[in-house]
Amino acid sequence: MNITALRSDHIYQKVIEAPPEDKLELFRNEMLAPFMKQWQIQQIPFRAEEANGFDVITFNSMMNRAPDQMTPNILPEVEWISVNSFWSGCEQAVTTSLRQFIEHGISLPVSDYLFTVQLGDPENRALTINEGYSGFGGIPGFIWITLLPNQHTLSRIKAALAHECNHNVRYQYIQWDHAVDLGELIVSEGLAENYATSLFGEELLGPWVTRTDTETLNRRIKPVLREQLQLTGFHHFAPYLYGDELAELQNFKPVNMPYSAGYACGYHLIKYYLRKTGKTIWEATIMPAAQILEEVKGYWDEETIISG
């Protein structure tokens, strides 16, 4: 297993020092080109002329610092992620998260992994509502973390990486296609967050779970989501997964769901599943959602008690 860290701090330094007219292409080639296989899988053009102005730069700049923002003004942000121990800690978290599967008898079809940590756009509401950190690990072999660097977000980087590594392993086994439904996303997010806390502690449980209280989960979220598990089409199920505010930011129709409803529901659903079946989190990670959902029918009627 080969794990490579793309040192974004070094790239930011180069782009900051580059003339304005060179920043965009330098960033494209240094930061985004190593992830070329991911862009191809996601069908995101590498250069704008291929798709009416939309390309990897446009996509990446939705949540992260754009190349034209990479001036000396962001040097204090870059300093947060320029410490060698930060990167070695990230690499150790990724290594631990992936090797745990091998140690528990689950082989990994993918052997090469590339990860990086990018500076987020502080004006991005989708990032700030998540307390300044987010990630993406759904394409096997590629792992991203976005953060607004501070003591809080850096303290949670291990758990964020573990969460994304869990997605990365799952989608080496589970086929993602146009027919993916809300049930799969609820299960997937529940698995990822249970995995992160199993490795690094429940004190690092993300805000996408901790902000939901017992009353909201049992009275507002569960009765609605249990009826929507077969819903397909990202624009249809996104509001149930992310909640109305994040959905509206993506121009999706709100459905009267609170922040990260599907994440909170999934976290407690998977806890219920693991407790009921005795399965391990490693076994559950690579199981089809339909099989898990068949085992948790009692979850929807049972009162979930959220401690703390």
From TrEMBL:
Domain DUF2268, first and last residues per copy: 86-294
Record InterPro entries: DUF2268
Protein name as catalogued: Uncharacterized protein YjaZ
Organism: Paenibacillus silagei
Top-level taxon of origin: Bacteria
